[in-house]
Every structure is written in structure tokens, then in C-alpha cells.
């Protein structure tokens, strides 16, 4: 005797309910950009806390036995309070390369593995970093506005920009992204130097232990490091002063790495020459002082968002989750002090 469609559908639904759960505290941006279906798998099921009206301390305990992993994006902290409610969790997967929203020591204490976005974003972020630098040096966005406003005909030629080739460029954070930035700048004929947690044996670029010293020996400073207690406001008044009135700064790391108030003051007083910024201290609320500055190029934290990188991200996220649930090596496991 045949099985009815209703019975078949019910069986499939029950099978879905039996799958291990991956909890989400907010929808990752990639869900809306390339579709949640890109992250689907027959090995796990997403459990979305944001679909429930219950507070987390009531909602999570009712599902904690089946929640084996967390899919986290920036803005949804994974801290000790959350992990305490999820005793079966063995993996945190993030859609970002940075991990400042994850309590790494607490994960280590609990034996929870961490997988981040790895190299997925490196090329796209490096492209934008160099693009921002070229834009602010050559005044691309500012001269575009000049033409659109009809000022070329009324006021004549726009002030000339500055050449990229030959510039002394300092990279703060020579990780995956920083290294890709360095390779691109080398191709433009720039002299590259860097500051990082430790000297990298695989590069011959000059290494500076001190960010101030790096800034003093650069025409442009590009911020590529992650945010931590040590790097918060690392780019402060002394660093900006060392960069000097002919110096430019580009930030594709995190907004809080720069003391934004001091940077605004330096820009307004002409103590640095310009800035290209993809990240800000209080996103999406950007300081209004920037809006009137033709020597500042602004981007709404979009360095990582291309269709190509998001497709790669979905494959990496699913691959990490399936590997973990199959007791196989993770594809992009985060290792401390790598």
C-alpha cells in the first residue's frame, strides 16, 4: 500500500526536527544579500532566536540539548552568559574574519572550537583598501562631485591630486588582508613597511614594533588589524601627529581602532592630509564633520560584500558546520596567535 503525500511530508518534517541545530541570534547580512538558501544543508537546521518573542534566557534552555553550534555575525556577541545556556555547543562559526564579538578565552575554557571567515574576504577588502587610498590621493570622489555640481565650467579646473607610485605605505596588521594589500601596493611601486603582533618571517618588508615609528616613516597608513583591547584607539593623537600633515590614513579594519574624535580634529586642523574610511566608531551613525570634508572618502562598511565573496562565504560556513558535525577537520579553524 502506498504512502500518502501527507505521511511523506510529515516524515521529512520529523527528519528535519531531528537534525542538529545551529543557533543564530541575528540574521547574517549574507542571508539578505544572496539568500538564506545558500547556507542550507541536509546535515543541520538553523534555529533563529530572533523569530521568538521569548528572551534568550528562557528560549535557549528549551532547545539547548539539540543546539550543537552557533553561527554568529558581528553585532551578536557570543559571551560567557550565552555559552552558559548552551552546554552542548562545540563550535562557533562566524561570518566575519574579525572575532572581537566572540569571547575567545571562554570558548577555549569550554573546549569550543572557533571557525572564522578565513581568507574569503581578503582579496575584496584589499581591493577596497587600495581603492580608498587612490580615491583620496587622486581626489576621485571629490572631483566627481565638483563636475556633477557644474563647478568645472564655473570655477575652472579642480585641484590636482597626488601620485600613488613611490609612496611610503605602512600597513598596521600584516595578516591575510594586510598581506594582500601589501602585494597590491608593491605592484603600484610603493615602498611597503608594517607593524604587526610579531615580525613575519615570510616577508622582507621593514618591520616596526611601534606604530608611532611606522607612521613617522610613512606617507600613508592603512589599518588592517582586528579590534581587541590592545588595538582599541591604537591610532591616537601621537600616531596621527607622527603621520603628519602630508600623511593619509585608510581604515578597513574596525572603527574603534582609530580615536575618531582625534582624527576629525587632525583633519580639520590640517594636521593630516586625508582619510579613506570603510569603518566607523558608531556605525551606522557617522560623524557629520566628515560630510563637509573633500579630503575624506567614506564607504558604508562594505569592503567584504561582493557576490563572489559571499558565495565563497556560504560554502565555507556550510563546510565548517558539516565538517564539525561529521567529526572532520574544520576548513578555517581559528588558532590563537596565528
From TrEMBL:
Enzyme Commission code: 1.1.1.79
Q: Does the keyword NADP apply?
A: yes
Give the SUPFAM superfamilies listed for this entry.
Formate/glycerate dehydrogenase catalytic domain-like (SSF52283), NAD(P)-binding Rossmann-fold domains (SSF51735)
Q: Where is the D-isomer specific 2-hydroxyacid dehydrogenase NAD-binding domain?
A: 130-303
D-isomer specific 2-hydroxyacid dehydrogenase catalytic domain spans which residues?
46-332
Recorded GO molecular functions are:
glyoxylate reductase (NADPH) activity; hydroxypyruvate reductase [NAD(P)H] activity; NAD binding
- GO BP field: photorespiration
Q: Which UniProt keywords apply?
A: NAD, NADP, Oxidoreductase
Q: Which InterPro entries match?
A: D-isomer_2-hydroxyacid_DH (IPR050223), D-isomer_2_OHA_DH_cat_dom (IPR006139), D-isomer_DH_NAD-bd (IPR006140), NAD(P)-bd_dom_sf (IPR036291)
Q: Which GO terms describe its cellular component?
A: cytosol
Record-stated family: Belongs to the D-isomer specific 2-hydroxyacid dehydrogenase family.
Q: What is the protein named? A: glyoxylate reductase (NADP(+))
Amino acid at each position: 500500500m502506498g504512502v500518502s503525500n501527507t505521511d511523506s511530508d510529515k516524515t521529512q518534517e520529523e527528519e528535519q526536527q531531528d537534525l542538529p541545530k545551529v543557533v543564530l541570534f541575528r540574521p547574517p547580512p549574507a542571508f539578505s544579500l544572496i539568500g538564506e538558501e545558500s547556507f542550507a544543508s541536509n546535515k543541520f537546521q538553523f534555529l533563529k532566536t530572533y523569530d521568538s518573542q521569548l528572551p534568550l534566557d528562557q528560549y535557549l534552555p528549551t532547545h539547548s540539548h539539540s543546539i550543537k553550534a552557533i553561527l554568529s555575525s558581528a553585532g551578536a556577541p557570543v559571551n560567557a552568559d550565552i555559552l552558559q545556556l548552551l552546554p552542548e555547543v562545540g563550535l562557533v562559526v562566524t561570518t566575519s574574519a574579525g572575532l572581537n564579538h566572540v569571547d575567545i578565552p571562554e570558548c577555549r575554557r569550554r573546549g569550543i572550537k572557533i571557525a572564522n571567515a578565513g581568507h574569503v574576504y581578503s582579496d575584496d577588502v584589499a581591493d577596497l583598501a587600495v581603492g580608498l587610498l587612490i580615491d583620496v590621493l587622486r581626489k576621485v570622489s571629490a572631483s566627481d562631485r565638483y563636475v556633477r555640481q557644474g563647478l568645472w565650467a564655473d570655477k575652472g579646473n579642480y585641484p590636482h591630486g597626488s601620485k600613488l607610485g613611490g609612496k611610503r605605505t605602512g600597513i598596521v596588521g600584516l595578516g591575510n588582508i594586510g598581506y594582500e594589500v601589501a602585494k597590491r601596493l608593491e605592484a603600484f611601486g610603493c615602498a611597503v613597511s608594517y607593524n604587526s603582533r610579531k615580525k613575519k618571517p615570510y616577508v622582507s618588508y621593514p618591520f616596526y614594533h611601534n606604530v608611532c615609528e611606522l607612521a613617522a616613516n610613512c606617507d600613508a597608513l592603512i589599518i588592517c588589524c582586528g579590534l581587541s583591547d590592545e588595538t582599541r584607539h591604537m591610532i591616537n593623537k601621537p600616531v596621527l601627529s607622527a603621520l603628519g600633515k602630508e600623511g593619509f590614513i585608510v581604515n578597513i579594519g574596525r572603527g574603534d581602532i582609530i580615536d575618531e574624535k582625534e582624527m576629525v580634529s587632525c583633519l580639520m586642523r590640517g594636521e593630516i592630509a586625508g582619510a579613506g574610511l570603510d569603518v566607523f566608531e558608531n556605525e551606522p551613525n557617522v560623524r557629520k564633520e566628515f560630510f563637509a570634508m573633500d579630503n575624506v572618502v567614506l564607504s558604508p562598511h562594505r569592503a567584504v560584500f561582493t557576490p563572489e565573496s559571499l558565495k565563497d562565504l556560504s560554502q565555507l560556513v556550510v563546510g565548517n558546520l558539516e565538517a564539525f558535525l561529521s567529526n572532520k577537520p574544520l576548513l578555517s579553524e581559528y588558532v590563537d596567535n596565528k
